[in-house]
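User: Hey, my collaborator sent me this sequence without any context and asked if I could get a structure. I don't really work with proteins. Can you help?
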Amino acid sequence: MWDYTDKVREHFLNPRNVGEVEEPDGVAEVGSIACGDALKLTFKVDENKRITDARFKTFGCASAIASASALTEMIKGMTIEEAEKVTNQDIAQYLGGLPEEKMHCSVMGREALEAAIAHYKGTPEKAVEGQVVCECFGVTDREIERAIRENRLTSIEEVTNYTKAGGGCGTCHGYIQEILERVQSEAEVAPPPRPRLSNIQKIRMIEETIEREIRPSLKHDGGDIELIDVIGNRVVVAARGACSTCHAANMTLKNFVETKLRELVWPELVVEEDAP
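Assistant: No problem. I've predicted the 3D structure and written it out in structure-token form, which is a compact way to encode the shape of the chain:
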């Protein structure tokens, strides 16, 4: 029996946003009933490129239903730019975690979101990229590589949990192991270490990055943030404007603000919201 969290059980027994949005702006269908899991996601976007409604239909297990329900709750109120940053780990964390054997359900949710956003933007549907490794579930080497990198997978069993590859006849296990070893060897070639920053340098770079890279995007949607303090690698900020009342503000801080600061200032920075 799988060890489900209370939140997974709640979203399975009482799923939110079941159905289809009328005249949707974004539509996607991923997975396959023949393979055991399928998901249709639709959403509506307002004039500010903010998702106002999101609904789903799914064929699958309790984790697939809960993951799709959680995904629709997460993205409502987000801008398209914010939704693009949602990962399968975000979906799992929203649910308080998923059994390792069911992480592929969160991956399917992320794939559906990416495809629906591509549809909204008018991006041509992607052709299947890479070579099919797992014939049983139609999983390609590119999909396996991405899952390994994004989730730091280290074994064939983990790859199966996240992608279903290798969960059928097992003849692809050797190829999956080769991919694991190749990705792991690439990760071992680390970039040269960054020079250490003094606290004054770090604060100055954080202020400049917020002003140049972060604040314009937030103000575009009526929001803003204020830098409150920098304590070691902790960056304490306060949400202002529309951000202060948005239920997706924490996702914005983590997936946008923190990501930008880690990329442009220091990779170990952690963004925290100032306690009221």
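In plain terms: Residues 199-273 form a domain with the GMP Synthetase; Chain A, domain 3 fold (CATH 3.30.300.130). You can pass these tokens on to your collaborator as they are.
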